[in-house]
Amino acid sequence: MPITIYGIKNCDTMKKARAWLDDHGVAYDFHDYKLAGIGKDKLKQWSDELGWETLLNRAGTTFKKLPDSDREGLNERKALALMLAQPSMIKRPVLDLGGKLLVGFKPDIYAKEVTSKSRGRKV
Questions:
Q1: Is 81 noted as a catalytic residue in this protein?
Q2: What's this model's pTM, rounded to 2 decimal places?
Q3: Active-site annotation holder among 3, 5, 11, 56
Q4: Are strands 94-96 and 29-32 parallel, antiparallel or unpaired?
Q5: Are 75 and 21 contacting, i.e. CB atoms less than 8 angstroms apart?
Q6: By its UniProt entry, which SUPFAM superfamilies does this protein fall under (predicted)?
Q7: Cβ burial, residue 77 (10 Å; 0-12/13-18/19+)
Q8: Which CATH number fits domain 3-113: 3.40.30.10, 2.60.40.10, 3.40.718.10, 3.40.50.720?
Q9: For site-directed labelling of 23, which of 64, 68, 89, 115 has its Cα 20 to 30 A away?
């Protein structure tokens, strides 16, 4: 199953993650959810697997600029609605290994989780 990395092209963390994949010869598809959006079903699937708290980027400026009323009383429904409306509120990157999801970029975790089976030419 192909690897897909989800994020935003100009994000520094995304650049590091993609450079790591490229440097290690890992083939992947890139999904820019700022340009292409993210499906409600896909986001819900991620939330079910990882928890919405893991997906929501509370440290980013998009979240910090929200009115207090939007930031207070967060639950899954409210958080998913915020992330669908403004995908830059989704932590980056989300790496879909075809059966396992990784959120954020840590080289040691990528080295452990991205198997040699996924190595090959970048798509």
A1: no
A2: 0.88
A3: 11
A4: unpaired
A5: no
A6: Thioredoxin-like (SSF52833)
A7: exposed
A8: 3.40.30.10
A9: 89
